[in-house]
Structures are given as structure tokens and as C-alpha cells.
Amino acid sequence: PRDTVDVVVVGSGGAGFSAAVSAHDNGAKVILIEKEPVIGGNAKLAAGGMNAAWTDQQKAKNIKDDPEIMFKDTMKGGRNINDPELVKILSSHSKGSVDWMTGMGADLSDVGRMGGASVNRSHRPTGGAGVGAHVVQVLYDNAVKRNIDIRMNTRGVEILKDDSGKVKGILVKGMYKGYYWVKADAVILATGGFAKNNERVSKLDPKLKGFVSTNQPGAVGDGIDVAANAGAAMKDLEYIQAHPTLSVKGGVMVTEAVRGNGAILVNREGKRFVNEITTRDKAAAAILQQTGKSAYLIFDDSVRKSLKKIDKYIGLGVAPSADSLEKLGKLEGIDGKALTETVARYNSFVTSGKDADFERPNLPRALNEGNYYAIEVTPGVHHTMGGVMIDTKAEVMDAKKQVIPGLYGAGEVTGGVHGANRLGGNAISDIITFGRLAGEQAADYAKKH
Ligand code: ADP
């Protein structure tokens, strides 16, 4: 029958597609449902990279890394409330996940720096193009190649169980078909987070009331409710991340890689105020303390040339430029004289290799080539760290820490991997690794039932 499978995957972001492809490759018949009319979720919008340690791509660039260091960076960035067992999986499987994606046709050969990482480990396509759209496209192509049944405009509404509490499928609502059952031995929730739902966000963290969000419209958290109704326990819901750099002019998120590749942050007074590549929570808090609750990313043509994505921001008109820092200051209402001094001082740190003001750990290039650019930025709600509690097999647990048989979770809908604060580049890593794991586990489980 058409609506009976081994595994049903809910959500078409990176976690959902990874789960669907891996469940299929482990022998399961799969249906993937997506409530929106488009695939990709927030994963498709991810601009940064995919964190992974000790990869061939890093070796080719003489970057020394180790899953142990990635583990430590992730725990520290998450203020040590992460579930260490899940972080171990994230870091130790990360190279395997990059290889898995590469094997399916992904290009992750460019390796850059993101906040909170002690080495360059953020993998992205050559030239620094957006990683999320690329990864989702590769996964989608592979799902299509495998003839996986993908149903758009189809919302997962309620998990169905038998009398013994085992999952038996999911009640869905198709835009045209209405309500119907998809029968399955296992359900994988990969429904993403709820950053777009400000009512929900501000109830959990009142400081974020009225904040804009970087997320796609579907990121409202109905998947969390589906899980909760099925008895899932929740973890760390109150930890919600503001991305520090949302463009004030255009509402687009400006990837952290702009800073990673050399941009500095200044306030209207033309002064730096923070280590630009600190963790997101710290950078966001520092920007909110500046005059006008915003700041400017300042960079030159050498930074622009190092990252394709920047041309997109220029094309959108959110990165005005001038041939001197004085003029740029005048254009944007920044103190131009102070800005000129700030950049000269920063350039001297690049030469000496040491940031005497804010101890920025990477100083990739001086800002002294061609035109200068300024992007005005302010924080926006970006990622919800908390969610459904899972174990090391991606099985969803109830309040007594008992597994709900047949229910799996992966990606932003889950809590525990990122603790109190997610590092840039760890989302794509999370969704590929745990999506793939959930797919394997669910396929195995379905075989036995
Ligand atoms: P992740 O990064 O964890 O893969 P994404 O945000 O990229 O998460 O993707 C989650 C996807 O799940 C989005 O496309 C979203 O529209 C979809 N989704 C959310 N809730 C439901 C639901 N109840 N039924 C079907 N799809 C859902």
C-alpha cells in the first residue's frame, strides 16, 4: 500500500534528508513529508560551513585538528551544559559525515574559521559559497535518485502508537488530501526549531521579545508539540541563540565567515569593542551595548575576494562602499577619523600577529586593499538550542528517560548537542551526523518489527 512504509521522516531540512537517504540505504522503505511548499528548511539558508575535525580537506591545507579539540570547543561554546555523549558523537563522526557528503557529490574543500573554534574547521564549497543550499541540493538529488517518496505540503500532526506504546506511524494533513495515516514502524522527527515564533521564543527568553529572526517561515515549533504529545521529554528549551550579525538594511543574515575571513566590528564611534570571533552569545550581547544597538562590519576588497558570499550582500545593497575609510564613515554615520585610526591599529596587530586590545585569535589579513565596505548589523533570533531529548542512538526519550519505541529525532528539533550556545558551523555538522544516525537506527529498528 502506498501509505505504508518502514520509516517516515518528518521535515525536509538537512537532518530530514540525511535521515531519509540513510534509512533507504540501510534497507528501509521511506516516505519524507514536509509541511511547506518548498524543501530545505533553515538548513538551506545556512551560510557558514560544516564543522569537522581531522578531515582530508584540513590535511590538504596543513590544518592540524582532532575530534578531541572539536569536542572541547563545542562544550566550552555551549557553556558545558551540552550532553557530552552527544557531543562525542558530533565530533568523532564529523569526518565521516564530510566523507559521506563528499561521496554523494558535495564539495566541502574550502575550510574557514568560525567563532569559538580553535582552528579552521568550517568546511564549505570552494570560494566560500553558502554551504546549506549546497548540502541540501546534494541530499535532495540523492533522495530523488533513490526514488524516495517526498510529499510536500504535508504536515505531521500526531504520532500514532499501539497499546504497548510502540510507534505505528503518523497522522498527517496533506494540503489537498486532508488527513490520512502514514503507517510506519519508525518515525524520525527532523522538524527543525522555532526561532521564527517570537511568541514562543519570548515566553522562554523575555529578552528576545520583538526580535526579528533569520529563520524560514516554517520554523515555528509545531514539531516540538508533536513530540511532546507523543510523550517526549524536552531539554534546554530556554536556550535560544541570537545571531549577532543580521543586516539592518536588508534583514539578511551576514555569515560569520565574513568576520572569520578578516572583517572587524566597530561602533558608531569608530571603535572596535569585542573579539570579533568570540562565540555568538558574547558577540550579540556586545553589539546590543553599542549606541543604537547596532554595529558595523568593516572590511576591504581583500576580504571581499576571499568569500563569494560577500558579493551577494553587495548585490543586495546592504554593503555600501567608499575608496577611503573617512568617506565610508561619512556615508554611514560612523566617526571616520576614529575609524581610520582603528583600522590602522588593527592592521598593526595583523603585522605583529597579536591583537593587543581584544585578543582576537585569528588575524587573517590587513584591511588596506581597494574599496572599504560597511554592513550595519544587529542581532536576530537564529537557533533554538533546546528540544526533544534523545540518546546516543537518536532515540527519543520520555520524562523517565525511557526510550519511546520507534520514535527518533535529529537536528534542531532536538536538545543537548549544543548546550547553551551553538557554535557556528556545528548545525550542518549536527544535522548530517545525527540525521544519518537516526536513519540507520530507524531502519534497523524497523527490520526487527
Ligand atoms: P534541520 O536543520 O534540523 O534539518 P530545518 O529547519 O532545516 O531543520 O528543517 C526542518 C523542516 O521541517 C522545515 O522545512 C519545516 O518546514 C519542516 N517541518 C516542521 N514542522 C513540520 C511538521 N509538523 N510536518 C512536516 N514538516 C515540518
TrEMBL record:
Its cofactor is heme c; FAD. Its EC number is 1.3.2.4. Binds 1 FAD per subunit. Its main location: periplasm. It catalyses: 2 Fe(III)-[cytochrome c] + succinate = fumarate + 2 Fe(II)-[cytochrome c] + 2 H(+). Residues 6-427 form the FAD-dependent oxidoreductase 2 FAD-binding domain. GO terms for molecular function: FMN binding; metal ion binding; oxidoreductase activity, acting on the CH-CH group of donors. It comes from the Bacteria. It is found in: Periplasm. Monomer. In the C-terminal section; belongs to the FAD-dependent oxidoreductase 2 family. FRD/SDH subfamily. Belongs to the FAD-dependent oxidoreductase 2 family. FRD/SDH subfamily. This is Fumarate reductase. The chain holds residues 148 to 596 of 596 of the full protein.
